[in-house]
Queue: 2 jobs
Job 1
Amino acid sequence: MCGIVGYTGKSKAAPFIIEGLKRLEYRGYDSAGVAVIQGGAFEVAKKTGRVANLEKEAARHKLTGTTGIGHTRWATHGGVTDANAHPHVSSDGKIALIHNGVIENYNAIKTFLLGKGYTFKSETDTEVLCNLIAYHYEKEATVAGESRLLESVRKTLHHVEGTYGIVALCIDSPDELITARRGSPLIIGLGQGENIVASDVAAIVSRTQNVIYLNDREIARLTPGEFSISTLDETDIVPVIDKVDWSIDDADKGGHEHYMIKEIFEQPEALENAMRGRISEDGSTAQFGGLNISPGEFRGIERFMFCACGTALHACMVTEHLIETFARIPVECDHASEFRYRNTPLFRDTLFFVMSQSGETIDTLAALREAKRKGYKVLAVNNVVGSTIAREADGGIYQHVGPEVGVASTKAFTSQLLIGALLALYIGRMRDLSFGAGMRYVNALKGAPDLVRKVLNQAPQIKEIARRYAHYSDMLFLGRLSLYPIALEGALKLKEISYIHAEAYPAAEMKHGPIALISEKCPSVFLAPKGEIFNKIVSSMQEIKARKGPIIAVVTEGTELPAGLADDVIFIPECHDAVLPIVASIPMQLLSYYIAVERGCDVDKPRNLAKSVTVE
Ligand code: AGP
């Protein structure tokens, strides 16, 4: 969840590291810090709050060193204080460390180190890890120069339980970085006379597009001109150098006030990118390059199981609806965090899918590993090429929507919906879905980007509506069938970025309890498109109106609601069932965005959240 940047090279490390931390700030933003080696000592600047605070603090420290490490923190152990911010320096002043993850046995290690005379200034597990490296470094005094820090870190990690992505510096080897991972992503960037390590390629691409994705239980040594990678068990690794296919411009705000609104407006192109190359030549079905499963094997699948978290789980729920409707195969969705502990009875001939924008969500990764451990094939729908989930899955489908920086997922979500719709088509066409129905389905998907553009054009009207609802403290989101997950997503978006309490229900469930909340103080957002249960949803609206609940209705163009029923109406174009969830998501995103802006909330960096959740 935290952001990591390490640099060793010819130029000053701190400006590059701070620039990188700004790009990673969406990962966690309780505090930030940077340490460089200069004049034979560590110079450390750290500050609670945003990277902007750190930048001011760093200016006071005059950081000139050319090797350094920096970190943005999302607190796990210890409160949000300057002392708890990373980097941490060992009490003998030899080692500096940044760390993502959680060291579970830190208490026992701390007791051991206190007994050896080490002292602590913070409440963090990271400072304990840092001092344990210092302890081993002291013991490894006989190891030849360039291996000593590497061996000390290796020894330390053998004693550690939990997860980590770390970068260590040592005062005795001023141009060396040691980095290792278990459960937290780390990427090495190979530059010209400089090498970088970061938790996210966004911090690397301004200097190089040549990267190596470190695997769990690997450890690397970087100097300005060299790098080497081995396993914790000392087996040398022959690195695979990948090329990142996006540039720094893709991660900028492009003139928008927030990443979130930029990404909302990028959705038509994002959908086109997610669809590119995935329609069969005859235009009646979908095709995928990386499933690593033959059509024959696919045809033998009798059940699907989808695991994910948050927004990605909502995309899975829509996919469930589409696969069951168009392919007539049972699908189960589960919270990835629950799946692992529920010990769900599983059928043979089940194919697993996980969905994850980041590909680093630890709960989703754990679900993937649990399913694989049970002998199932697991495919991943994922946006970040080279992410841990992408690498551990047996195959999968990349979303191809470019970097998503806003903490509230938008374009990644609608591209997951599109991929879910393509999957339902692919499976449906293997079974009962006719050639003609397949063609109509494909044409509808091809039209989705334009329909989304049409809804985006209503942003000014939705902004006006949002202004009128920004002062409420509670809201209900109600939808049915494939739009129930969209109601869940609408409520999640609103909670995340505006801090308004919001809940979602299938519209007809509302009368089984939630209706008790209804009054003039609790508005409801109804997703009420044309269709066979439209009249039922109108009845639910009547029940709300009878209790003075304000209503925002999202309806199909041309719909006339009974006079006075809805206080505000947002129109969406009529569309195919496979496209409806995508189109209906746009008003949800715009409403929550404009409400949050009206309330003065920090939309891209909502409190307590982080873009990818890499702790359990
Ligand atoms: C989305 O707005 C949320 N920030 C969050 O629910 C997110 O979708 C969830 O943490 C899963 O992330 P992932 O897709 O990267 O796995």
Job 2
Amino acid sequence: MKIKLLGKNLEELKALAAEEGLPSYTAKQIARWLYVKKAGSIEQMTDLSKAAREKLQQKYEVGLVRYSHLQSSSDGTKKYLFPVSCAHTRALNASCSGREDVKLEDGAIEAVMIPDDDRATLCVSSQSGCKMGCRFCMTGRQGFHGNLSAADIISQFISVDESDRLTNAVFMGMGEPLDNYDNVMRAIEILTADWGFAWSPKRITVSTIGVLPNLKRYLDECKCHLAVSLHDPFPDERLEMMPVQKSWQIADVLALIRQYDFTGQRRVSFEYTMFAGFNDTQAHADALSRMLKGLECRVNLIRFHKIPDFPYGTSSDLIIENFKKRMNNSGITTTIRASRGEDILAACGMLAGEHKS
Ligand code: SF4
């Protein structure tokens, strides 16, 4: 199997050039072909000598994963399905070579492009499935199939039809990004480096349910925005919805976040999905405002999209509006997130690698 060039940073490309006896400037040329010109093959890298290309082709490939299916919503949102061969699926299949009865299908992951006036935001996946088991999430119900490599993540940016006009990215697709820390950070390095996509970190938001050890690393090492899935201010209720509350309490997540400065370029927001009769009362709004008091932040209220075998529906528009007003009156900036792509199962919490035909 050939080694993928996509997903490598400049240092690694320099090491690769040295190993192959190519001039060191070749590394920058390859990075430019991969991340600026978005070449799909080594053959296309025409400012490398023919001999250099032939040498590289013996051992390497670009490794771009192209989408296999596309659905468009009536609101302009587009959902892309990517076939992804996850490491643990490959390992299992290799260990069961010849046993078709135990062969696993490779995972499928999704990226969603959300247009909004002059913006085009890509919601990217970081894992195939997810370990975190949030009860309200279709991805969580799938179980975990594997981490995406940096190449898999960057492929989502390059392969979508809107690649050249993307303005923002949110790591809010399938998976918990901070549970795949190294590959997500590598992808962000490629997106923000001047030899890569050269995006400002302000264009990228990473969402987490609060994987505490890696959240600290993220806040220390990365300048991108942070979104935290909070969903309930009361620990016992949050635990009912989100098993992560057992390992990492939301109070500890907030105590950590308060140690960092969010008054400048980097912003923190909190996602709050509204479940009718569960977390949408005035008492919840008041507890949430007390919890976030003094923190420079924003709360996004999200309409819940009903999923099978889950006891709660979405709160009414009136309740959501009143919740918002109560939060804003208490001094916490709160908005209602517009729901996008519901008709193609592309809205928050609906991604499951399934496509409506
Ligand atoms: Fe995983 Fe996020 Fe779904 Fe929770 S909400 S199960 S962290 S994908």
